[in-house]
């Protein structure tokens, strides 16, 4: 057996730490961590009361709690529900629960994640499927999780796990004093004292529930020890095999079992015993039995369990289970979710900026959970890209519109010139890399044991072992300040360069042989891997990145459509006549504003007489003069580096976008209606637009704006 079950009870230090007297700080933290408007208890005081009046009532509360600590009994008048929440039992329990709960359980345990359970389930099932031997998998539906739990069962588990008697008495007391106050016309009229069940709202409940499920876990282990049932064993001859009899995530339970009638009978018996002892009911009609490989007499075994049969692929914790590797079918749910979302936006008019916000905040997060475990097939990526691309540029319109900027550039992070839409393939890679980081970082964990047993500790999972002896330390390869690397194998030609670059990097490093070696992720501040930092770092290596201080334009507060238009313009992609010609449109290229030059971005927004007039108006308003720059991008950089007074700084930052937006609106009016706006009206309209944006921004005052434009002469 593996090391999983060895540590299943508390050490005496842990036991004592749980039972320490309450300290003032601990209690205050607990009170402050509660919502102030949490409904008042039978004593009529809300948490807000305790938070506000802490200074006054502190002594009384500390006294009461210490009385509780010593006597495990509360003064009657003191609200019983207060006890459950104040002594920060949760925080204390959280610290030890990882040691108590076997690796088969994942919910709420620090350091264990929901994806761990799905990874283990899939790897174990895959192993079994490949072995060709028959097996059974049960998905159990445990009903009414919190409120039917038997206290005596829970307490006997606490005792088995080595909790001290004082702690057990506290918990017992919390149970026995739970009172459900019935509110009639908003005033309490009485109390009910229930006989069982842990409270839904108690912050401790999920943890106590996990401990109760640990009871099931131990009973299933016992059934295996008694040879009532067999579990699934994973092992490729690399060290001891790992056997898995079940996986629990809160009340989501999988049981792995041999495909024999006698075993199913015993399993049924074990579950019945669990029901009787714990009070938790397993709803067999909602549970499912899945055959792994060819299982004879499946129907008979389903009849023993009184549950329906199912087939793979199925789902576990929202993730596919038992699907073929790289199957694109399992991604259908994601594609459908995308389409459902889009359909729900069908009726709304959305600007480009609005659509961008929806893609960034809604669509891009839909596949993240799947991508954190599965590699997205290229076909699926193309499909999701097409959906997002069409929605971005065409909205809900069915007619084709020009996609102004290449998708590869759109999907760059904003600081590299993109719109921050996720590059799904890269994001997927960064999410999966996290597993490698965790594999090399975490000392233990059931998921890691499964991976090791299945692929060996020398597999692609650990790429850090290039030294001749895998357990050697870095300092062993450096003598008298000279590196002496003895490599495990001969290098390939393409690896040489990497080794040279490594040598150059470490040449001058000082080595401290006293400290333990550890992996460090260079691209984050604290040296640990984050998906976000990796994504940014990998994006910076792309050839399509656009080096320009893009952060200048993403900081200002403007309507989203203006932000997007400004981005498109600075990417030289808005449909000026120059750009239309580049796209092979046959037109006579002449600026609509001055009617003489050809219409390029720089001409229309900077050098055209109308544009220059507008820029100059703003310069004179701020009392400045300037020489017109060559390009729009230069003008933006120059504008933002100009030092202006604090009072007008905010207005100043909105001006270039305002000029762009107004010129483009006027240009389109001239192009489609053929009627130019008189220049003074146009300038006034530009100021009104700016005024509207100033109103949008809460930090700007209208007064300062009026003062700012009082000196204006619109006819120049
Ligand atoms: Zn012009």
TrEMBL record:
Q: What is the lineage of its organism?
A: Eukaryota, Viridiplantae, Streptophyta, Embryophyta, Tracheophyta
Occurrences of domain Reverse transcriptase (ranges): 67-321
Q: Name one Pfam family in it.
A: RVT_1
Q: Which SUPFAM superfamilies match?
A: DNA/RNA polymerases
Q: Which organism is it from?
A: Solanum verrucosum
Q: Which InterPro entries match?
A: DNA/RNA_pol_sf (IPR043502), RT_dom (IPR000477), RVT-Znf (IPR026960)
User: Know the name of this protein?
Assistant: Reverse transcriptase domain-containing protein
């Amino acid at each position: 057996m593996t090391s999983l079950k060895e540590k299943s009870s508390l050490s005496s230090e842990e036991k004592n730490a749980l039972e320490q007297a309450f300290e003032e700080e601990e209690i205050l933290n607990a009170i402050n961590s509660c919502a102030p408007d949490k409904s008042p208890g039978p004593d009529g005081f809300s948490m807000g009361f305790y938070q506000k009046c802490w200074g006054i009532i502190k002594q009384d509360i500390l006294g009461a709690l210490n009385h509780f600590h010593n006597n495990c009994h509360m003064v009657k008048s003191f609200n019983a529900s207060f006890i459950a929440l104040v002594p920060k039992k949760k925080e204390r329990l959280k610290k030890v629960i990882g040691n108590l709960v076997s690796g088969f359980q994942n919910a709420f345990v620090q350091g264990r994640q929901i994806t761990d359970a799905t990874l283990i389930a899939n790897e174990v099932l895959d192993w079994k499927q490949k072995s060709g031997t028959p097996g059974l998998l049960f998905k159990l539906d445990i009903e009414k999780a919190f409120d039917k739990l038997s206290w005596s069962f829970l307490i006997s588990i606490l005792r088995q796990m080595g909790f001290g008697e004082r702690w057990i008495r506290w918990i017992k007391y919390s149970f026995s004093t739970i009172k459900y106050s019935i509110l009639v016309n908003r005033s309490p009229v009485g109390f009910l004292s229930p006989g069982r069940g842990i409270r839904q709202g108690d912050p401790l409940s999920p943890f106590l529930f996990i401990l109760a499920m640990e009871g099931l876990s131990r009973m299933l282990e016992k059934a295996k020890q008694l040879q009532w049932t067999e579990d699934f064993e994973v092992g490729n001859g690399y060290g001891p095999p790992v056997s898995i009899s079940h996986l629990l995530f809160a009340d989501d339970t999988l049981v792995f079992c041999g495909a024999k009638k006698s075993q199913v009978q015993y399993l049924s018996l074990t579950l019945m015993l669990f029901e009787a002892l714990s009070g938790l009911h397993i709803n067999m009609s909602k549970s499912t039995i899945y055959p792994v490989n060819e299982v004879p007499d499946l129907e008979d075994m389903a009849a023993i369990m009184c549950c329906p049969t199912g087939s793979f692929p199925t789902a576990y914790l929202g993730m596919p289970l038992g699907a073929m590797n790289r199957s694109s079918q399992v991604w259908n749910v994601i594609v459908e979710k995308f389409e459902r979302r889009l359909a729900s936006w069908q009726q709304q008019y959305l600007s480009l900026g609005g659509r961008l916000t929806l893609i960034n905040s809604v669509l891009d997060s839909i596949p993240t959970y799947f991508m954190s475990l599965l590699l997205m097939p290229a076909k699926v990526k193309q499909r999701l890209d097409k959906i997002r691309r069409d929605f971005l540029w065409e909205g809900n319109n069915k007619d084709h519109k020009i996609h102004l900027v290449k998708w590869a550039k759109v999907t760059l992070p904003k600081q590299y010139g993109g719109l921050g839409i996720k590059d799904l393939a890269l994001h997927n890679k960064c999410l999966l890399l996290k597993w490698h980081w965790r594999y090399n970082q975490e000392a233990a964990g059931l998921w890691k044991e499964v991976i090791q047993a299945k692929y060996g500790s020398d597999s692609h999972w650990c790429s850090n072992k290039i030294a001749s002896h895998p357990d050697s330390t870095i300092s062993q390869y450096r003598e008298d300040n000279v590196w002496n690397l003895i490599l495990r194998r001969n290098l390939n030609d393409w690896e040489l360069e990497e080794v040279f670059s490594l040598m150059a990097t470490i040449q001058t490093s000082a080595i401290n042989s006293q400290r333990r070696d550890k992996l460090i992720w260079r691209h984050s501040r604290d040296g640990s891997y984050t998906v976000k930092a990796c994504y940014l770092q990998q994006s910076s290596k792309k050839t399509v990145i656009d080096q320009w201080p893009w952060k200048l334009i993403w900081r200002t507060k403007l309507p989203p459509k203006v932000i997007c238009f400004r981005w498109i313009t600075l990417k030289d992609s808005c449909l000026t006549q120059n750009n239309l010609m580049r796209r092979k449109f046959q037109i006579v290229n002449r600026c609509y504003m001055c009617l003489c030059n050809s219409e390029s971005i720089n001409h229309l927004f900077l050098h055209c007489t109308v544009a220059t007039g507008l820029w100059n108006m703003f310069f004179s308003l701020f009392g400045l003069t300037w020489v017109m720059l060559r390009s729009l991008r230069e003008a933006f950089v120059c504008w933002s580096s100009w030092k202006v007074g604090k009072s007008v700084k905010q207005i100043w930052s909105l001006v270039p976008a305002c000029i762009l937006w107004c010129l483009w609106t006027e240009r389109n009016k001239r192009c489609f209606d053929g009627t130019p706006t008189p220049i003074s009206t146009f300038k006034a309209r530009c100021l009104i637009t700016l005024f509207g944006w100033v109103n949008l921004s809460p930090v700007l005052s209208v007064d300062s704006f009026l003062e700012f434009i009082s000196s204006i002469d619109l006819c120049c």
